[in-house]
Design a protein that fits this description.
The protein is α/β, with parallel strands linked by helices and 375 residues long. It folds into two domains: 4-20 and 283-374, Alpha-Beta Complex (Aspartate Aminotransferase, domain 1); 32-280, Type I PLP-dependent aspartate aminotransferase-like (Major domain) (Aspartate Aminotransferase, domain 2). It is built from eleven helices and twelve strands. The chain has helices at residues 4-10, 30-43, 50-68, 81-92, 109-115, 135-138, 164-174, 266-282, 284-304, 329-338, 360-374; strands at residues 18-19, 75-78, 99-103, 122-126, 146-152, 179-183, 200-204, 216-219, 321-325, 341-342, 344-346, 349-353. The strands form three sheets. It has a seven-stranded mixed beta sheet, with helices on both faces. Helix 4 runs parallel beside helix 5.
Length: 375
């Protein structure tokens, strides 16, 4: 995907490290640094800089819409996925008899908004089996009271990528009143998305999209605009924020636009605009075509070393994440860190993430360090 020269030009910090931790934090290209410098230049103009600020928001909306297959008025932004899920909870306004299905492979942001609601709905937990979510285990959890099914296209925990179409069809058949919310944080920018028919898409901006902290992309198709309009206070999402009747009523923009409740996080959106245009210039399909064989090589090498990945690898459902547990995980992680090989270590779990800027050399370095530790 990248030549040796363009890789070092665009990602100079990778010259000294093997970075296999994009599922936690990406290494942004230099284009993002330049975008942040543009933000600083505009911010230095004071109020006059807002012309550049709002232009950057619209440019970011345009490229986000293109990459998600939506229109610009179906895209909005907030500060992080946690904020997005709390706003989603306000839009749904669920009661104590309503039901929400969540999975044990989801990130906490997609689970706890319902647990912390003033009137919590009933949470049904869809449990994984051998690291995978099977549609046969979902169907018994679905009924007419199900109002939301929340899942991640790719799990942050073990890299499992759901089999989307059977899940979508099961929800539509067995839970006719349910919306499907999909966290695409661990997929957006890394794999070609295949969640057509989802009701809302949510993604953080500092991982595979190569952006920075402080942003979140929300995609809501127009068909759901009325149903997914938040009830939050604020001003930026109001159509009458400064009208003469503003103290009598608050008129909220519908759908995605209702999720941008306050002043945009301009710096994050300057960065995201540049990052997404960089990824789009390469092509997500090209990223996947380059990185997927590396994931396959890594998976097979781990098996050969008697490590047990936490879920099977399905070659028809590409993912950038592999995880495994080991009783000597702390020792393994220390050895990897000493060799400047960056991975995630948590509670005995080691997670490796492969993006388009990774090379076979990165894998060989990691595997060599693993071998030297356990043998």
């Amino acid at each position: 995907m990248l030549t040796d020269s363009t890789r070092l030009r665009d990602f100079p910090s990778l010259s000294a490290i093997a970075y296999l931790n994009t599922a936690a934090e990406s290494i942004p290209p230099l284009a993002v640094k330049e975008a942040l410098e543009s933000y600083w230049a505009d911010k230095s103009l004071g109020m006059r800089g807002r012309e550049g600020h709002f232009a950057a928001v619209e440019n970011c909306r345009e490229i986000s819409a293109k990459m998600l297959g939506l229109t610009t008025d179906e895209i909005s932004f907030c500060s992080c996925s946690s904020e997005a899920y709390n706003l989603l909870a306000s839009a749904l306004h669920l009661g104590e008899k309503d039901e929400v299905v969540v999975t044990d492979l989801d990130f906490p942001a997609g689970v706890t908004a319902w647990m912390r609601a003033m009137t919590p709905p009933i949470s049904q937990l869809w449990r994984s089996v051998c690291g995978e979510l099977n549609v046969a285990d979902l169907i018994p959890l679905l009924n007419e009271k199900t109002k939301l099914v929340q899942l991640s296209l790719i799990s942050f925990y073990n890299g499992h990528r759901i089999d989307w179409q059977p899940i979508h069809d099961a929800v539509r058949q067995h839970a006719p009143n349910a919306l499907i919310s999909v966290d695409i944080t661990q997929a957006f920018g890394r794999v070609v998305l295949n969640c057509e028919g989802a009701d809302i898409l949510i993604s953080s901006t500092h991982k595979w999209t190569l952006g920075v902290h402080g942003g979140c992309v929300i995609g809501i198709p127009k068909r759901n605009a009325q149903r997914l309009t938040t009830h939050a206070g604020g001003w930026y999402h109001l159509s009458n924020a400064f009208d003469t009747d503003r103290f009598e009523r608050a008129v909220t923009k519908t759908g995605a636009m209702s999720f941008s409740v306050g002043m945009p996080s301009f710096a994050a959106l300057y960065a995201l605009n540049a990052a997404l245009r960089y990824v789009d210039g390469v092509g997500v399909a090209a990223v996947s075509a380059h990185a997927d064989p590396l994931v396959k090589e890594l998976y097979e090498s781990l098996i050969a070393l008697n490590f047990e990945p936490l879920c099977p690898l399905h070659h028809d459902r590409p993912t950038g994440i592999l995880s495994f547990k080991h009783q000597r995980s702390a020792e393994i992680h220390a050895a990897l860190e000493k060799a400047e090989i960056h991975v995630m270590h948590n509670a005995g779990r080691i997670r490796l993430a492969v993006h388009g800027y990774n090379t076979m050399s990165d894998l060989h370095r990691a595997l060599a360090a693993l071998k030297s530790t356990i043998f």
